[in-house]
Amino acid sequence: MTSFSDITGRLERLAIEVPSWAYGNSGTRFKVFGSPGTPRTVQEKVADAAKVHELTGLAPTVALHIPWDLVDDFKELATYAGDLGVGLGTINSNTFQDDDYKLGSLTNADSAIRAKAVQHNLDCIEVMGQTGSRDLKIWLADGTNYPGQADMRARQDWLAEGLSTIYDQLGEDQRLVLEYKFFEPAFYHTDVPDWGTSLVQCLALGERAVVCLDTGHHAPGTNIEFIVMQLLRLGKLGSFDFNSRFYADDDLIVGAADPFQLFRIITEVVRGGGLDDDSDVALMLDQCHNVEDKIPGQIRSVLNVQEMVARALLLDTAALDAARTEGDVLAANQVFMDAFYTDVRADLAGWREERGLPGDPMAAYRASGHQARLAEERVGGHQAGWN
Ligand code: AOS
Ligand code: ZN
Ligand code: ZN
């Protein structure tokens, strides 16, 4: 039987990358509700991310989105981040907001637009050289809204061609992480809609091309933990974009909609070695905090992941294996559910305090008055743009 003290070593190494855009005003196509204290600059986003890490010890790196987070000097930004106790992480390219990309970017029928999208990703690789980032994450909004609108097969070939040009420019220690999404903003077909497409495109590129699994990017009812298992088994799970959803890609706080699904996903991550010392699976958040304050929203998120990791690490794998071997269905399910229902909150709080962290980071943030200070200092933050 595993006890909490048996798992603290692995908990200690848990690192969840936060996205810069989670700290900006975001929203839906219906409305972006600004909130006081919202960052107005990349530096302020990094400072907010550093506050999350300061109170939780869980979020040592910040993912950037280019061009949203463009600065004149990324080395200076990396130094600024380092002074605050965090590093710059994944670089997310953006070929979904330029008017040229209305009919696609890497899959556009116009070779000049495809070349422009490739160049943007090459520019992101330049940024990676300055930030020291390992991962270039590519998510494409590419797709169509109507049957007949485009040649889906030609688009796969163009995609492969563009990704190959990008991949060839990566450094030996860098990776191309290809994210899939089953729909939105395109509604008839998406050019990287599922893990199979991302996988085959990555296999064609090479060993440093891996899949990003965004937990909000599947049709309702999908067994996401099966995909996690399969990609880990193939050595092709590069990273997660954690969030939660009730309907589509809602980008809500991870674990808020379905903590049991998060637990099931994490158990497969643990089973597949994704939390081992030598694992290069990146755990990242990809969320928007439209109606809640962003820093506490991110604190809640990383705590939710930490809690499910603790529960998954407490899974009695010996008892589970024995029940499975005996074909004892109910016993195996009970062992699994016992781990899920284990309340680890008090143990986690005590362990945090032993390490000089607040036992309850959410309460600590609330009591700090930090949000009110930001609202006062960041005049105009309320209207700060999308990112
Ligand atoms: C879009 O739905 C994807 O999840 C992207 O990973 C991400 O949201 C985008 O790059 C930032 O908005
Ligand atoms: Zn994502
Ligand atoms: Zn998404």
TrEMBL record:
One of its GO terms (biological process) is rhamnose catabolic process. One of its GO terms (molecular function) is L-rhamnose isomerase activity. Signal peptide: none annotated. It comes from the Bacteria. Keywords: Isomerase, Manganese, Metal-binding. This is L-rhamnose isomerase.
